[in-house]
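Section 5.1 Outputs to date
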Amino acid sequence: MAEARELVTPLDGKATATQPESVVPQEARKKAPTVRRQPPSRKLQPGDLVCGDCGEGNAQTRKFCSRCGTSLATAEIVRTPWWRKLLPRRGAKVRRSGDRPKRRGRGGKSKTGVFVSATFKLIRRVVSVVVLLAGIAYGVFAPFRGWVNERAIEVKSGVEGIFFPTYEPVHASEPPVAPLQLEDFPAEQALDGASDTAWAAPADGKQEPVIEVTFGRQVDLARLIVHNGQKENFKGRARAQKLHLVFSTGKTTDVTLQDAPDPQTLEIENGDGASSVEIHVTGTFKSMAGNEFALTELEFFEKT
């Protein structure tokens, strides 16, 4: 107990106030401004660096954003659109630091470029002079104007003939010839323009039916309309399935028909300059009623 009392400090009844040490006033810290992403202040070009904080576009040579000062180490690079790479480059070529341009001629062009440019300018001047003189001649000289109009009509007709071809019927200059024909169905009935008559021939397999048509002049055969079989007795006689055309020029072509009584329009090849044609029936649709072949009508057309 005596030892405990020695540890206790006696109070004299007076309170002692401890004052804090004086502190020098400090300036209030400014709050860092909040950076908001905004549209760039200029049109972005391929290769520009877009700031990730404020969205400003900066040139490739900058290290920090020109608007907010943020580092551009991780900035997004503006890419060149794929379609722009297909277009010819205009304006002066931008080179990187350290690149050396090749030796070029005047105006920064290569020797080949200078030659091509000079040649093009010369051709353009010559064409301009020719067009000017032709325009004056067209307006003043009537025969020249008529000649130009005729050439223009020919060119127009040629272009229309390629994209919108027209066909004119071609008629035989003499009766057709067929080695095989039935007595009441001669070969002439295949070209008489009537649908109630027909050319008929034996179809026993010993000899193929053939008909020769002569036009009396050179024609450019391009289309053939076939009325197959005999209209009044379509299933009673065999019908043509394959035709082999031999032209007077020595060229040939083959066409295939359908087993139908309706007219069939066929485009034929190698018929240019032909004065006659032999039509060989190399295949037929068989008939259960007999061994006779029939064909109602043939119509020939040339391209104009």
